[in-house]
Amino acid sequence: MTPFSNGSCSSFLFLLLAWGHGSPMELRNLEYRPVRVRGHFDHSKELYMMPRTMVDPAREAQEAGRLSSSAESGAYVITPFHCTDLGITILVNRGFVPRKKVNPETRQKGQVEGKVELVGIVRLTESRKPFVPENNPERNHWHYRDLDAMAKLTGTEPIFLDADFESTIPGGPIGGQTRVTLRNEHLQYIITWYGLCAATSYLWFKKFIRWAPTM
């Protein structure tokens, strides 16, 4: 995270325009796009996505194939961020904190004040997956990204960024908590190819079998 300097969030304009007027395909293409924003946090409206473990590629590579993990459980801290140049407020995942540090009173040193500049990775809303609990806004427990619900509760736009690792400050959440998830389109491929196979078989039957002379 770097101190604020004069400038604009013009690199963010394309994102905002696409979010407001783009097609679903255009919006999907925005995911994982890095953007730079300038403004300040509103720590009074923090949200917590939990339980979560910290993204640590080295540890995850060492523990690949194991049935258990040594990773500490905690939460992602989602904080409204007001983009001063554009006059809008978005949601920023500042990063991971262990469970004992979820309460902001235990990490006052990391509650950065004033204007800052950071780079974040665009994330889209999520649908609840099977076996994932429902979000509980009353208790401020969020199990998946429901951007409309999060935005409504905090009074922000439904725009969400994962702050990069460089945004981390001593005593604050650890940034860089983006897990890249590729869309699974295997089912669509299966349906498509089975459909083509069925159509081809029908045409072959109609041409060569149905009208074949009987002995």
Brief account:
The protein is an alpha+beta fold and 215 residues long. It has helices spanning 13-21, 24-30, 57-62, 147-154, 186-209, and strands at residues 2-3, 34-41, 47-53, 73-83, 88-98, 116-123, 160-163. 24% of the residues are buried.
Q: If you had to describe this structure to a student in words, what would you say it looks like?
A:
It holds the Pfam family SURF1. The chain crosses the membrane at residues 187-205. Belongs to the SURF1 family. 25% of the residues lie in helices and 24% in strands. The chain is an alpha+beta fold. It folds into two domains: 2-182, no CATH class; 184-215. Strand 4 and strand 5 (88-98) form a beta hairpin. The N and C termini lie far apart (84 Å).
Sheet with most strands: 5 strands, mixed, barrel
Secondary-structure content class: alpha+beta
| Tally of structural domains | 2
Principal-axis shape equals globular
Q: What's the mean pLDDT score?
A: 81
The low-confidence parts are: 4-8
Can you give the helix content as a percent range? 25-40%
Number of beta-strand segments? 7
Number of helices: 5
- Strands of the widest sheet, in order across it, are 2-4-5-7-6
Separation, N- and C-terminal Cα atoms:
84 Å
Protein name: SURF1-like protein
Keywords: Membrane, Mitochondrion, Mitochondrion inner membrane, Signal, Transmembrane, Transmembrane helix
Subcellular location: Membrane; Mitochondrion inner membrane
Transmembrane segments: 187-205
